[in-house]
Design goal:
alpha/beta, 2-enoyl-CoA Hydratase, Chain A, domain 1, Lyase 2-enoyl-coa Hydratase, Chain  A, domain 2, 2 domains, six-stranded mixed β-sheet, four-stranded mixed β-sheet, 12 helices, 16% strand, binds acetoacetyl-coenzyme A
Length: 257
């Protein structure tokens, strides 16, 4: 597929989706979001891809939803466009999503980052929900995902002041997984993608699903969901192979079935 607002590249076992509106710090307009969702859904169906990296450039992961595109919209325009509903489709991507973040991850950029499963950030990452400074509030998950990730007090501070936090603060708060020097953040994400791609894909899929389930269920419902996913894996060839390989003291040969 040829895209204008993103670049998609495939490597052995994983894919990289790079936001590509550098002149506007990868501001997320409707066209970019359409392409992004389409690309992610296609990669989700692609058997050669077992993990997806979402990235921007050194200066910006994404500086938020495109303010110029929204500025003159009425509430009814926004309701009819319902552009943030498309973001839910990213939440439904079954393969692991790694965000490789450098520079600004603001507003919708921060929300996109938080929709990913693992975040590798460069030392220069600046993360925040600055919508309050332009007369609005987070609209694509910022008040919900940030609060779940860092707790009410810190989420309130970020959302109500619009301040940017550093990569070091984000790491300390548990919002990201790792900080690496700017030259290595993408390479680090690639190494992680390779590692995840080497794991049995059906187990990876059900494990991701079970972790995400913890966000919208009771502990009891979540434990039951987890248990059933665990039992379900005993229908996979990879479970038989993985356990046999352990007993025979050899490396497992995953079939992805
Ligand atoms: N939308 C549209 N254009 C944007 C943009 C955005 N979110 N962020 C940056 N740009 C554009 C700028 O307008 C500028 O374009 P021009 O050269 O044509 O003027 C270009 O990107 C470079 O930006 P700056 O000159 O401002 O760069 P800077 O280094 O001085 O500042 C910044 C960087 C602090 C990130 C600043 O650009 C900024 O504050 N951006 C807006 C951040 C923001 O408010 N994000 C939230 C958007 S609303 C949202 O995301 C809602 C939601 O919940 C989904």
């Amino acid at each position: 597929m040829n895209y204008t607002n993103i670049h998609v590249t495939k490597e052995a076992g994983y894919a990289i989706v790079q936001l590509n509106r550098p002149d506007v710090l990868n501001a997320i307009n409707i066209a970019l979001m359409q392409e992004l969702v389409e690309a992610l859904e296609n990669l989700d169906k692609d058997n050669d891809v077992r993990c997806i990296i979402l990235t921007g450039n050194e200066k910006a992961f994404a500086a938020g939803a495109d303010i110029k595109e929204m500025a003159d919209a009425s509430a009814v325009d926004m309701l009819i466009r319902d552009q943030f509903a498309r973001w839910d489709k990213i939440r439904r991507i079954k393969k692991p999503l790694i965000a490789a973040v450098s520079g600004f991850a603001l507003g919708g950029g921060c929300e996109l980052m938080m929709t990913c499963d693992i975040v590798i950030a460069s030392e220069s990452a600046k993360i925040g929900q600055p919508e309050i400074n332009i007369g609005v509030m987070p609209g694509a998950g910022g008040t919900q995902r940030l609060t779940r990730a860092v707790g009410k007090a810190k989420a309130m501070e970020v959302v109500l002041t619009g301040k940017m936090i550093t990569a070091a603060e984000a790491l300390q708060w548990g919002l990201i997984n790792k900080i690496v020097p700017v030259e290595y953040y993408l390479q680090d994400a690639k190494d992680l993608a390779k590692e995840i791609a080497s794991k049995p894909p059906v187990a990876v899929r059900l494990a991701k699903e079970a972790v995400l389930k913890s966000f919208d269920t009771t502990i009891e419902g979540g434990l039951e969901f987890e248990r059933k996913n665990f039992y379900l894996l005993f229908a996979s060839e990879d479970q038989k192979e993985g356990m046999k390989a352990f007993v025979e003291k050899r490396k497992a040969d995953w079939k992805g079935k």
